[in-house]
Amino acid sequence: MEPISVIVGQIVALPVPDIDTDRIIPARYLKVTDKEGLADGLFFDWRYRADGSPNPEFVLNRPDAQDATVLVAGPNFGCGSSREHAPWALQGYGFRAVISPSFADIFRNNSINVGLLPVQVDDATYLQLVSLFDEDPATQVRIDLAAQTLTLPDGRAVAFPIDAFSRHCLLNGVDQLGFLLSGADAIAAFEAQHPIELDTTR
Q1: 3 state DSSP class of 83
Q2: Which of 100, 146, 154, 184 could anchor a disulfide with 77, C-beta 3.0 to 4.6 Å?
Q3: How many domains is the chain built from?
């Protein structure tokens, strides 16, 4: 997992509430056990017509949205099933962060575990971002994970919440298992000083 410190990127707005994980990545793409090919299925039923051709009406297919790395999504983003394929698909497509007024808890946790940064903002900031994208699709934002701030083009900095453990893992590019393994020497030293009192081999 790559460490995250500061993300500066172009936004793309998908202001639809309650986008569930099946909409993000349809169930037919869940046969894989790794990330390969998941980006192809991202928002598939919106991105493509019935004949397989790209839907020009869908925002991600617009030429001015091709460089976006920050998704601005409607409230309750990522509701539905617990599939971690959803943040994998977003990440594989090129998104590094998702901004929304609210996230489904499991989606938020899965995103953090794979290194996709969920940025929760107030409704006014969300609506401002949607409006900025409508006015200028090249709009960029700056996300500072260490400071826990999202900076808008006008210079206004908006604080966003993230728990200390998740912040530490993202800043250092480690998942929960990696965090535990980083303390292997300390664990071994503790075990050496505290011999087993109960013999379970008998």
Answers
A1: coil
A2: 100
A3: 1
> Dihedral of CA 24/28/30/32: which sign?
negative
Q: Is 123 helix (H, G, I), strand (E, B) or coil?
A: helix
Two tokens, residue 93: 């497509």
Residues 42, 93 contacting (CB under 8 angstroms): yes
- For range 86-112, the mean pLDDT: 97
Specify the residue for token string 């990696």. Answer: 178
Residue 200: inside a domain:
no
Helix (H, G, I), strand (E, B) or coil at 176: helix
pTM: 0.88
Question: Any bridge partners for residue 151, and if so which?
Answer: 142, 157
What's the Cα-to-Cα distance from 42 to each of 21, 35, 87, rounded to whole Å? 10, 12, 10
Q: Which of 82-86, 147-151, 189-193 has the lowest mean pLDDT?
A: 189-193
Q: Please report whether residue 202 resides in a domain.
A: no
